[in-house]
Design goal:
1 helix; globular; alpha+beta
Length: 68
């Protein structure tokens, strides 16, 4: 399934699921309202390495929020 371009996957500090966040949004919280715990400016393509493709997201709440 293809995700919208403004979505990226990220792991939160305490967890193993891959969540989604909106690159064009606030970047402090995932779509399921979990705190990302990272400098918001660092969360972009080519950032610190915690970002992954949105296609790898496995958080059900994030996927539901994006309509997947």
């Amino acid at each position: 399934m293809d995700m919208p371009l403004e979505m990226l996957g990220v792991q939160t500090p305490k967890g193993t699921l891959i969540h989604l966040y909106n690159v064009e949004g606030e970047r402090r919280f995932t779509l399921c309202d979990r705190w990302i715990g990272e400098n918001a400016r660092a969360l972009a393509l080519g950032g610190n390495g915690r970002q992954v493709s949105a296609d790898l997201a496995d958080c059900r709440r994030c996927l539901k929020a994006v309509g997947a």
